[in-house]
Amino acid sequence: MVYRLGVIFLILLVMSGCGQTPLNGKIEKVGLLVPDTISDQVWGTKGYKGLLRIQSVYNVDVYYKEGIDNEAAVKMAVEDFQKKGVNLIFGHGSEYEKVFNSISGNYPDIHFVLVNSKAEHKNVTSITFDGRAMGFFGGMTAAHQSKSGKLGILATHSWQPEVKGFIEGAKYINPDIKVKTEYVGQWDDSEKAVAKYEKMKKAGADVVYPAGDGYNVPVIEQIKKDGLYAIGYVSDQSELGENIVLTSTIQHVDEAYELIADEFNKGTLKGGRRIFDIQDGVIEMGEFSPIVDQSFQEKIKGLIEQYKKQENCQMRGDPDAA
Questions:
Q1: Of 141, 153, 270, 277, which is least surrounded by CB within 10 A?
Q2: Mind listing the domains of the chain with CATH numbers?
Q3: Could you read off the pLDDT of 181-225 as tens digits, one per residue?
């Protein structure tokens, strides 16, 4: 078992990419572009909270624009931000990858920040939330609680690391468990997500992981009506029903934005990819439902602490040491 656990940690741990030369300069003003709204209580709201944290810590003017979901709108918004004196811009989603990379050369005094994207220039940084570990612990919890031996994942895209992690965690608990994965294709397509959930329910899944920030709340509300279980996503969703939401895989986007702002203000923010994981305090597991037995909760918490202690995103020495 000790060796097996060491192998699991080796699976979870990934190497972060090397960054490029830092762009020096203190924060002057900060801008945020959101493809939808800051009022969705999930993804958009977290981005806005990150902007407010930066405003509070650095006492700078901040600006945001909602519904910026096409190239022309992005270019107009960036131009407006530049005129206001903004020198740090967050594009709150992968939607901004192409245009940020294409226009960054025209704005050498602005640093652009993306999420889960490719950053191709020295003044473009992409934040990546490595959700494989949180998915793993969420999958362990789902498999532990399942009575039918069937789980469901409602993901948005196949590249989401939490999907693979969830499956690995579930099979770590029960190698024979069945995990059905469906892809919604859009982060906010609630109608499609609920329809796919209904199919999972009919197939016997009794724990479902809606890994999409725009549709997870509607899906969990339907799960609640059906008396089944869910694993929350992005935020702690125990308030949706402590006897329904077994735990949540949380991404503190607002804290990540503050950390990025701090690096930029110090002149240490590099272009390229910036990976955040559980060790950074940006990703964590939420509160456990009281229906999850205490001994299992303690087991999960112990494994998380072991994972946090791994240094430099790499196991040291013999895997048996884990």
A1: 270
A2: 12-129+253-280 (3.40.50.2300), 132-251 (3.40.50.2300)
A3: 999 998 889 999 999 999 999 999 999 999 998 899 999 999 999
